[in-house]
Amino acid sequence: MSDHRSMPVPDGLEGDRLDAALARMFGLSRSRAAELIAEGNVLVDGAAAAKSDRVRGGAWLDVTLPPPPSAPVPRPEPVPGLRVVYEDSDIVVVDKPVGVVAHPTVGWTGPSVIEGLLASGVQVTTSGAAERQGIVHRLDANTTGLMVVAKSEVAYSVLKRAFKERTVDKHYHTLVQGHPDPLRGTIDAPIDRHPSGDGRFAVVAGGRPSVTHYDTLEAFRAASLLDVKLETGRTHQIRVHMAAMRHPCVGDHLYGADPTLAARLGIRRQWLHAVRLGFDHPTQGRPVEFESPYPEDLEKAVAQLRED
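RESULT FIELD:
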């Protein structure tokens, strides 16, 4: 069932292209907004308009949004390399391999953590949307390392709150190009979808508050190994903040990394690993902490830089 919206253009979007204004107002990608306009689903002051038309603050928009595609329901599917680090009746902590998402999503046909756990007989809580039951935080498909999944409803609600209130200790290691200056610091810059609508995120005025602390562990000729502590957990946060500092994660072509350096080090994805995860156990109250070694591809890249 389609969703009809009728509202004025906010004054803050005065002068923006129609497709850009729609993308900001409804959380769409720029390309999806352009499709809606081309399909005749957008009227400005009662008349059809082109995607490149500039909007006027207060102009009346009538938009017909199609129903969102329903996300696939998780089914048991073995995931090679998915390692259970810890499990009890409330939580399961996994070490996620490369090429695996947290839960099934529209358009993703690869493996997911939830489906891998179901295949190995781990029952997760039914709390949350059907496709992401038990998921309290996520890692990008090509980011490896530690994730906690809730098995009980109480664990789900307590952990969701802990992540929201920033009481979870999340440490990552990342190999970035060049040498950050200063060697240790905090990046406090808001993040939102990139205006291009191509799936990237970016530092954007008015975006969601995002805070990343970093410290240089080791400096090489062309790159630096950083310890990163996340205060917030925005999509692509470390990748976006490092790129904004002009020190993208090695291998992160989406955010401007040098393909030559990645090829020389044998890296085919962003060098980013969730190395440590600590939190108060949701039912026992005691602090728990888990660590994960680097996967082989990341370890080899660092060993090569040390040799150089």
